[in-house]
Amino acid sequence: QVRLVESGGGLVQAGGSLRLSCVSSGRTLHTWAWFRQAPGKEREFVAGIRWSGGSTSYAASVKDRFLISKDDSANTVFLQMNDLKPEDTAVYYCAAALLGRSIHTRAAYDFWGQGTQVTVSS
Fold first, then answer.
1. Per residue in 40-76, is it b (16+ CB within 10 Å) or e — as a string?
2. Fewer CB within 10 Å of terminal CB in the chain, N or C?
């Protein structure tokens, strides 16, 4: 049984930083990602990483501000969020897939965390 547990959300002023963590219990997952969902909006892809090789992908809106990384020994994926903007406010979800068919597609992911709230004040 695979379980993803997220942490690190909170309230921060515009221009500040937060670091999100996602820990997996269970089998090794091939592809990891962060998605986010604001009220009234669709859940959108933020960043993804392949466990083997470590290749990454970012949404255009967060490229050069956010950084996804992993700790192999701890089965943990991080999302370092810098220069936060009010439009980054959302619930952030960790996701993982047994197979990495499409890193950007919600349907490709088999497991999801409970979500962690990120609020950026202006």
1. eeebebbbbbebeeeebbbbeebeeebbbebeeeebb
2. N
